[in-house]
């Protein structure tokens, strides 16, 4: 595992965006696995800026997102489809038919998980998978205790996740209770993995996940077994690591 230390969030975003842009330049028709959440927003902004300057071309890139809430339409401003269009897709020249997310409006979980798994395989797998890391070590919606051998699956969101998401919705009833997510096995099949982490509140989990025992209780710890992982984190997120 390679670790790049950044000064702050902006520096982390720039360094991580460099890795993504190198992938796009080296293989213009690459498959990028993308993540949502607050941590990658700066990275996406940087990619958009470089695209506008003429430094990057996304016309052949294909994307697959990690996850999507079940039961949320694409138009819902809390859906990950909406998030990706707001933060990246609408600002670069990626053909909309090259962008893929789980279909949150498909009620048949088994059918949707099978479709999305087959889709990823049909694209030849993911060249570079971007990940954030949750405070409890979750990656995607793979919460502590999930088995490491799952592919795309439908998860029941934990009470803490539902609670954390409440602020984004009009009422508690509107908060999705389930989500479609790539499983740990799917994530581990990516050729390269890039993790971004920022802030002191992530310091403890960064230390646990990457320098502690490999256990389903800390889902991100499995990444220690992958042969091409890069962690880009700011000083605060790395503050609990001894040099």
Automatic annotation (TrEMBL):
<feature type="active site" description="For ring-opening step">
    <location>
        <position position="136"/>
    </location>
</feature>
<dbReference type="InterPro" id="IPR018321">
    <property type="entry name" value="Glucosamine6P_isomerase_CS"/>
</dbReference>
<dbReference type="InterPro" id="IPR006148">
    <property type="entry name" value="Glc/Gal-6P_isomerase"/>
</dbReference>
<comment type="similarity">
    <text>Belongs to the glucosamine/galactosamine-6-phosphate isomerase family. NagB subfamily.</text>
</comment>
<dbReference type="InterPro" id="IPR037171">
    <property type="entry name" value="NagB/RpiA_transferase-like"/>
</dbReference>
<keyword id="KW-0119">Carbohydrate metabolism</keyword>
<dbReference type="GO" id="GO:0004342">
    <property type="term" value="F:glucosamine-6-phosphate deaminase activity"/>
</dbReference>
<feature type="active site" description="For ring-opening step">
    <location>
        <position position="143"/>
    </location>
</feature>
<feature type="active site" description="Proton acceptor; for enolization step">
    <location>
        <position position="67"/>
    </location>
</feature>
<dbReference type="GO" id="GO:0005975">
    <property type="term" value="P:carbohydrate metabolic process"/>
</dbReference>
<dbReference type="GO" id="GO:0005737">
    <property type="term" value="C:cytoplasm"/>
</dbReference>
<keyword id="KW-0378">Hydrolase</keyword>
<comment type="function">
    <text>Catalyzes the reversible isomerization-deamination of glucosamine 6-phosphate (GlcN6P) to form fructose 6-phosphate (Fru6P) and ammonium ion.</text>
</comment>
<feature type="active site" description="Proton acceptor; for ring-opening step">
    <location>
        <position position="138"/>
    </location>
</feature>
<dbReference type="InterPro" id="IPR004547">
    <property type="entry name" value="Glucosamine6P_isomerase"/>
</dbReference>
<dbReference type="GO" id="GO:0042802">
    <property type="term" value="F:identical protein binding"/>
</dbReference>
<dbReference type="Pfam" id="PF01182">
    <property type="entry name" value="Glucosamine_iso"/>
</dbReference>
<comment type="pathway">
    <text>Amino-sugar metabolism; N-acetylneuraminate degradation; D-fructose 6-phosphate from N-acetylneuraminate: step 5/5.</text>
</comment>
<protein>
    <recommendedName>
        <fullName>Glucosamine-6-phosphate deaminase</fullName>
        <ecNumber>3.5.99.6</ecNumber>
    </recommendedName>
</protein>
<dbReference type="GO" id="GO:0006046">
    <property type="term" value="P:N-acetylglucosamine catabolic process"/>
</dbReference>
<feature type="domain" description="Glucosamine/galactosamine-6-phosphate isomerase">
    <location>
        <begin position="13"/>
        <end position="228"/>
    </location>
</feature>
<dbReference type="GO" id="GO:0006043">
    <property type="term" value="P:glucosamine catabolic process"/>
</dbReference>
<dbReference type="GO" id="GO:0019262">
    <property type="term" value="P:N-acetylneuraminate catabolic process"/>
</dbReference>
């Amino acid at each position: 595992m390679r670790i790049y230390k950044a000064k702050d969030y902006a520096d982390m975003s720039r360094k991580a965006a460099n890795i993504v842009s190198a992938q796009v330049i080296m293989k213009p028709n690459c498959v990028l696995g993308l993540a949502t959440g607050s941590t990658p927003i700066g990275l996406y902004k940087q990619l958009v800026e470089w695209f506008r300057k003429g430094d990057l071309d996304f016309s052949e890139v294909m994307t697959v997102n990690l996850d999507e809430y079940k039961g949320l339409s694409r138009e819902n401003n809390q859906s990950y489809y909406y998030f990706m269009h707001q933060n990246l897709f609408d600002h670069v020249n990626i053909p909309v038919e090259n962008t893929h997310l789980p279909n949150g409006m498909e009620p048949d979980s088994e059918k949707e998980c099978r479709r999305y798994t087959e889709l990823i395989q049909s694209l030849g797998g993911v060249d570079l998978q971007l990940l954030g890391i949750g405070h409890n070590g979750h990656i995607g919606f793979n919460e502590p205790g999930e088995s490491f051998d799952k592919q795309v699956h439908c998860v029941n969101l934990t009470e803490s996740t539902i609670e954390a998401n409440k602020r984004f919705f009009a009422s508690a009833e509107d908060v999705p209770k389930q989500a479609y997510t790539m499983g740990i096995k799917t994530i581990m099949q990516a050729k390269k993995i890039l993790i971004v982490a920022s802030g002191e509140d992530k310091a403890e989990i960064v230390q646990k996940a990457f320098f502690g025992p490999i256990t389903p209780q800390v889902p991100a710890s499995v990444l220690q077994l992958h042969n091409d992982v890069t962690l880009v984190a700011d000083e605060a997120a790395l503050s609990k690591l001894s040099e």
